[in-house]
Amino acid sequence: MSNGEKNIVLETRGCEGPGTFTMATLLQPNVNSLQTPGENRSVPPSPSCSPARNDCGIAPLTPSPSPRTVVRPQAACPFSVVVAIDFGTTSSGYAFSFTQDPEAIHMMRRWEGGDPGVANQKSPTCLLLTPELRFHSFGFAARDSYHDLDPEEARHWLYFDKFKMKIHSTSDLTMETELEAVSGRRIRAIEVFVHALRFFREHALKEVKDQSSSFMREAATLAGLVSTDAPEQLLIALEPEAASIYCRKLRLHQVVDLSTRPMANGIETDGPRLFDSGFRQAREQLRRARHSRTFLVESGTGELWSEMQTGDRYIVADCGGGTVDLTVHQIEQPQGTLKELYKASGGPYGAVGVDLAFEAMLCQIFGADFIESFKAKRPAAWVDLTIAFEARKRTASPSSANPLNISLPFSFIDFYKRHRGQSVETALRKSNMNIVKWSSQGMLRLTPEAMRELFQPTVNNIVKHIEDLMRKQEVQGVRFLFLVGGFAESPMLQQAVHAALGRSCRIIIPQDVGLTILKGAVLFGLDPTVVRVRRCPLTYGVGVLNRFVEGRHQRDKLLVKEGREWCTDILDRFVAVDQSVALGELVRRSYTPARPGQRKIIINIYCSATDDVVYITDPGVRKCGTITLDLPEPAPGGPARRREIRTTMQFGDTEIKVTAVDVPTSRTVRAAIDFLSN
């Protein structure tokens, strides 16, 4: 988990026999916490709670012990194939590998449609629904179908583009959160994501079936990606972590090393055009190899990794469409495991920022009211315009001296003249924006200066984010910086990172930079134990009652029950933010029901981005999950004793697993923490 917003990476694993699947998802948890033990062994005599305070269904039975590590042996993989689905902001795709041949990673079939000159290894994250809210198409098919609709008819359809990014800034994300289509109609966000994921499930199942008919013999019985009867089939794969895992396998001919090129004042001394040549050459090699769609990886570690020693540190910067996420790893063994040195971090600095800057430029030239009206009245034409800019954005280079031409749809030119009573050429002239010219062929001509202005805010944010991280004490001595994700293909970003950081570390870009996360997610599915130590992104704990201590506890937390003074709403931590947690590390607590005869307990899980919280009502503390445990009546005539509820939190994986056991009956519940709930 990380503080930065994460793209969803789904990992699906199928078993032979009944078609069951595993889904791995990248989500940032809503910050909330749980209820843990108190400071003494005494049991409160049935304290009650104020309705405005924490639901005090439990009280501490034991003091808070230190976490202990439980070593989990690596179990034999019960699956025959691992499928990773990369659900990105701007583009999505999937890859898979059969467990009997883990060195071969198969990419999805090439998508139909697409843009001329652009390799379509992934599909744009676009969804089209009918006016009746039924699924119509996804990806290039959705984009092209929406484009072909009559403008009046298109107003009734629901087209979603880059919709994952639109929920990034939603602080109170819930199951009822809505997304707005290009046409202005709204629908619950969860329904949009379900349509998209169901499309990928069906697409991936069909291809895996073609590759291995015996595996998919009973696939027709599959109702969804994951079965509720087999929760262990759900994995969480963190994107920069997945990229890091794949980078361990790289050979020298599979990377571009930007730091091998000397620079002066941000320009290469060998000439500016050499800056792009290595990456173009690598992309050409990749394009020639794509006919097989199968990539072989080292059975151990790659040649690049052989240059690194135990204890070496490196950063992976996942530069995607919506966000940039960073992780810092240290090699524990020459062949093996990784240790996270600093909690994963990120921010909304992805390639979408350049798109937003272009839209702002259009608003400055033609007026914000016109742009909003055009988007609402001619949504398909607006999509065409954004596609045209996207294609040109990919070719923008700091060494280019020529303008980039962007075709304006005829409906844009016509709509502006009817809306404003003047031509777009006149609007450009009146705007005094000298860095944008007009072509008589119906195109905007963006000068190199204009492209630099569009890229600069986003690129500067990325560079600053990396520089701030490298100044942290825990990150000193980094030898490598791996740039991955679709935006890492941009020569504008490469040049800026090279100029700022090229002297302090080696900057490495994998050839198939946009597919690095997909391949790493497959490798993670094959061996989830490769990252042995992680940093906890948040403080987790539970709210409890404890003995009230005058001078230490706030008076408004005082609760008097049967002559005894109790303090409510105390947060008892299980683990603190940025604390190192080993794979499989367990923290156990024991509780007892707060009232005799209680037939149900509710354990609320809380978290916070800081480690100095005292109460669950402190600013920044939020509830992220709940465990409910029914308590049947004890057997008649049994001994009267304090009922023990044993709670366990398991850390170190990419998600936190919580279990509660009613000791007298052995009844067990496990937390399916719903990070989208309030």
From TrEMBL:
Region (Disordered): 32-51
Ranges in a coiled coil: none
Superkingdom of this protein's organism: Eukaryota
Protein name per its UniProtKB record: Heat shock 70 kDa protein 12B
